[in-house]
Amino acid sequence: MEVVxxxxxxxxxxxxxxxxxACISVILLDNRNPVKSIAWVVALIMLPVAGLVCYVFFGRNxxxxxxxxxxxxxxxxxxxxxxLGMKELITSDIPKHLQKTARLLYKNSGANPYIDTKIEIITxxxxxxxxxxxxxxxxxxxxxxxxxxxxxxxxxNELRRLLIRKAQERVRVRVIYDYLGGFxxxxxxxxxxxxxxxxxxxxxxxNRKFGSKINYRNHRKLVVIDGKVGYTGGINVxxxxxxxxxxxxxxxxxxxxxxxxxxxxxxxxLTDWFFVDNTLVINEKYYPEPDVFPQNVVQIVNSxxxxxxxxxxxxxxxVFSNARKNIYIHTPYFLPPESLITAMEMAALSGVDVRxxxxxxxxxxxxxxxxxxxxxxxxxxxxxIFSYKHNFLHSKAITVDDEIGIVGTANMDIRxxxxxxxxxxxxxxxxxAEFLRNAFKADAKLCDEIKLESWKTRKNLTKIKxxxxxxxxxxx
Length: 476
Known about the structure:
476 residues; nine-stranded mixed sheet; globular
């Protein structure tokens, strides 16, 4: 019997080494960032079993392998006449240096430059949910909702009751929630919606088909009502945006759209619906003729493991590279890839006023510690950093030169740019850009500015903790 056990042991050991060798081969053939490749190879060699498990769940490159290609529906009915063609873009009012960004986003994500959209930026959680629920109440045909988190709390149940009533009025209601983000959502909550006729699906549930893709989450937040009104931004469905929690009331940035750019949000939702429900929704009624509003251009940019390029990251870097006066950034998590750090440094060193605002306290202490490890380098280049002391900053918003604003779901971190499904609006509109700048300056009054000299004098133990946390930045 001992001989049999010995044979089995060596066979399992041989199989394990074969799997590890195969994983290392895949890592090398991916031709990724050498630092990442070396880190994963070391983890596989030095951490038996644990390193392999971590690689399977967190290290695989699904974008390169196109594992999500099935997510792409073959057709939609978004009307191109409400968007600028590339030839029309050249003669538009968009500044020449921003036309480069618009062309890039069209090429790397298929983001049409939609014209003449009404834009309203909302910075209060109370106001967002009030307007959103009013718009849902007025829905006549369909309601499409997609959130990373839907909580089973006061706000979440108000939404549930409203959706049930609209479904009973024969309004078609579709809901997508991320399986991990909505992990605490009760079966009773979901079942009550289904029983009322609401179509609701989780995104990437933990099962045999998607178990190894646990690291790839749908972080998008968007709503489309009758194809005419749309919402996106950083807010989830939860009480903390109105009532607060241990960190205080969450400060976020959302936007409400009317007009052609709503078609872009509709495209994103129906693409995701095809993936979760295997139903291709292509009826023209989901893309009604939009009203026309004051002149501007908006691109709805989606990015994730299903896209060939890191579209949102590329767009932000291009905007930063073309900045001439100022860059103001809101983000709750600052764990940037090297390319973004370089873009911020170059802008600051060239005389651009670059300001970054982050929360003083975080809902993820490890991420907060890792963020701090990046501060010294960018401050030495001239970037000013503001620590938001009032409640919790969850806003994801950027404004540059009073010419372009960026609002959406992507944080300034590796996870958002490389692993999560995200959506951001790039808004070529002076009024919106100025509003975001003024909002940033108002928030700055609730901040302490971090000074370079005092930052250098922090305790060595603190610096070591931050550097250790930074090693985990790709999965935070």
